[in-house]
Design goal:
It is a single chain. The chain is α/β, with parallel strands linked by helices. The protein folds into two domains: 178 residues, Rossmann fold; 252 residues, tm_1862 like domain (pyruvate-formate lyase- activating enzyme, Alpha-Beta Horseshoe). The chain is built from 20 helices and 21 strands. The strands form six sheets. It has an eight-stranded mixed β-sheet, sandwiched between helices. Strands 17-18-19-20 form a four-stranded parallel β-sheet. Strands 12-15-16 form a three-stranded parallel β-sheet, with helices on one face. Strand 15, helix 10 and strand 16 form a beta-alpha-beta unit. Helix 3 crosses helix 17 and helix 11 runs parallel beside helix 13. The longest helix is centred in the C-terminal third of the chain and has 19 residues. It is globular, with a radius of gyration of 23 Å. The two termini are 45 Å apart. The relative contact order is 0.10. It binds iron/sulfur cluster. Iron/sulfur cluster binds next to helix 8.
């Protein structure tokens, strides 16, 4: 369950820690390639090792071998003072629970002994309740304030007491509403300009300096938890971005950056930044983009930066629904973007769609997409195999979005709809992937869970990490315990425990609008 697996890397820390140092494990419950693409890994590792009395060590998880891999030291978790766990998705809780079970480190078992298990991430910020029997504390919001407090926490006789007193740290024994922390000014905040560069394994999105251009998003798409929970929209200035790139690339073996932004072209100087990269012959990985602002010149720059696949997220071709959910794109605009992408020379266009915004019109949605693709294939004489890469996800209800009132079981109704996309669209030119509704259901069960859901997560983790273990755990614990799974919440418990800065009146009003205009049975 635990191995030391050091990697060949450029820029790792070799800190000669003292035995008295406060020892922090930075654990990303994902494989090394995914963990190294997280900006938090780089930030926490660099920041904490820069603090005099703290030593930080990285840990990742290998799913194939079912082991925790220590990257920097042979210290097992029970020799650490704190385990700082960065979770990106709800399923990371299951992996974490499995690891803590194996090491006898679940709160009930370890009692007050070390390490303190502190979790952070978007999903746990939105709803920390399902981590009740798994973590000691949850950091709400962005990690900077917590990292800055760590020197103080590390010298306290009871660090958990200090954590409980922080406005942005949620602990399960207190009923006080805690507030999400966010950085006001990204230009003034700490950024890891020198980053660890893996030499053996390629991180997700490829090698290169991770550059976070913006945080939050101003679009508030109805289904998007990130867009709601990471508000407000903030961005780094062009000067700061250039400074990060110029400095960071001096320490990087490749002249390439990986851009992080939820909505890149909403940043006023996005064009100037991309042009700067292009003029400096710096390659870039560009995140998924909204199609509504993809002009020909922007596509040309993205292509010139070395991007072979253009990734866009129209989510729906139904303009009426699109405008209701925050993706107001008409078919003509999308058609133009796709034509331009082909002409500019992209090898593939990856498109994300979501099914489930409405009930009963899946045939219409599939036909629209099929017709659009057929028209483009014939008009442009497309010859590239699998030029269109389509991913269709089920609508997954998440906390702090208007869809938080839908039950998780709603996802299971979408199985046939997703199958129709595959059977109707797959061709020489079109690759179709769909997200398994069972996993979507499980994701929503955790996302919309309460304290009792942590028992489900622990039981799931005990039996393995597969979907059959989830189903067994759900059956064993009896559905009566989890009424919300099939009925949803009228009054979601998390809105009484955390304040993420989203008005609940807005959520109910928008849900009612969406419900009346799109759903028949809710
Ligand atoms: S534009 Fe993207 S990131 Fe922003 S709210 Fe919409 S889906 Fe979320």
């Amino acid at each position: 369950m635990f191995v030391v697996k050091r990697r060949k890397e450029v820029n790792p820390f070799f800190k000669r820690g003292r035995p008295t140092d406060f020892k922090v494990g930075v654990f990303i419950p994902l494989p090394y390639e995914a963990a190294m693409s997280s900006t938090f890994t780089h930030m926490a590792y660099a920041f904490l090792n820069g603090v005099d009395s703290v030593s930080a060590y990285r840990y990742v998880y290998d799913f194939k071998e079912d082991v925790v891999e220590a990257l920097d030291s042979n210290l097992p978790f029970n020799k650490l003072d704190m385990l700082l766990v960065s979770t990106s998705f709800e399923f990371d809780y299951v992996t974490l629970a499995r690891v803590l079970l194996r090491f006898n480190l679940l709160p009930k078992v370890k009692g007050g002994s070390k390490p303190l298990v502190v979790v952070g991430g978007i999903a746990s910020t939105a709803n920390p309740l399902p981590l009740a029997g798994i973590a000691d504390a949850v950091v709400l919001g962005e990690g900077e304030a917590f990292l800055e407090k760590l020197p103080e926490i590390s010298t306290a006789s009871n660090p958990l007491d200090v954590l409980s007193g922080l406005d942005f740290v949620f602990t399960f024994s207190s009923d006080v509403i805690k507030r999400r922390y966010f950085v006001d000014d990204l230009n003034a905040s700490y950024y890891p300009r020198i980053q660890v560069y893996p030499l053996e394994e390629e991180p997700i999105y490829g090698h290169g300096l991770r550059v976070e251009v913006s945080r939050g998003c101003r679009r508030f798409c109805a289904f998007c938890m990130e867009g709601h929970v990471m508000n407000p929209f903030r961005f780094r200035s062009l000067t700061t971005l250039r400074n990060i790139v110029e400095y960071g690339l001096k320490y990087s073996p490749v002249k390439r950056v990986v851009i992080y932004s939820l909505s890149l072209f909403d940043v006023p100087h996005a064009d100037a930044f991309l042009n700067y990269l292009s003029n400096e012959s710096i390659e870039a990985s560009i995140p998924s983009l909204r199609p509504d602002y993809l002009t020909l010149s922007r596509l040309e720059v993205v292509k010139a930066l070395g991007q072979k696949t253009l990734t866009i997220a129209p989510e729906t071709l139904n303009k009426h629904i699109g405008c209701l959910i925050g993706k107001c794109v008409d078919q003509e605009t999308l058609s133009e973007v796709l034509s331009n992408a082909y002409r500019v020379g992209f090898n593939h266009v990856k498109m994300y769609f979501i099914e489930g915004f409405t009930e009963g019109d899946v045939e219409e949605n599939v036909t629209k997409l099929k017709n659009l693709i057929s028209k483009l294939v014939s008009e442009l004489n497309i010859k590239k195999r699998k030029f269109f890469r389509i991913t269709v996800n089920p609508l997954i209800p998440k906390p702090w979005t208007p869809y938080q009132y839908l039950p998780p079981s709603y996802v299971l109704n979408l199985r046939k709809a997703l199958e129709l996309y595959v059977s109707e669209l797959k061709s020489k030119y079109v690759e179709v992937e769909t997200y398994d509704v069972n996993w979507g259901f499980a994701q929503s069960v955790i996302a919309l869970g309460n304290e009792e859901t942590s028992n489900l997560i622990i039981e799931w983790a005990r039996n393995g990490l597969g979907i059959s273990s989830f189903k067994r755990a759900l059956k064993d614990l009896s559905l009566n315990m989890f009424k919300y799974v099939s009925h949803g919440w009228e009054d979601p418990p998390w809105i009484h425990r955390v304040d993420v800065g989203v008005n609940t009146k807005y959520l109910t009003t928008r849900f009612n609008i969406l419900r009346h205009k799109t759903f028949k049975s809710f």
